[in-house]
Design goal:
Blueprint (H helix, E strand, L loop, with lengths): L16 H9 L4 H31 L18 H6 L7 H11 L1
């Protein structure tokens, strides 16, 4: 009988790297941890894409504080609105009326 030399196979006793990986997959919670890792990565990617989208839209908005008084009714525009909507020229009430007319 011819004897083949130079080939090595993992021991049949289950002590190789593959056997350790397989046994780890069978541990309780391994699949749950793997799924949670995937969900974490997806969530991180989604948050990153959302932040990029927000930055790109904000770049399109006019910069500066805008007007201090409404161009329609001459009422003062609150500082919070001017910070929230850079470049605004109308108070909330006048802007709401303009948007209602457009719709």
């Amino acid at each position: 009988m011819a004897q083949v030399t130079g080939t090595s196979k993992a021991p049949a006793t289950g002590t190789g790297k593959v056997a350790r990986r397989r046994s780890r997959r069978c541990e309780p919670g391994f699949l749950r941890a793997t799924i949670m890792d995937d969900i974490d990565r997806i969530t991180e990617n989604t948050l990153m894409l959302d932040a990029m989208a927000i930055r790109s839209v904000r770049a399109l908005l006019p910069s500066g504080s805008g007007r201090i008084r409404c161009e329609d009714c001459d009422a003062p525009i609150p500082e919070r609105r001017r910070k929230a909507v850079p470049g605004c020229t109308r108070c909330v009430e006048c802007q709401a009326e303009i948007e209602a007319i457009r719709c």
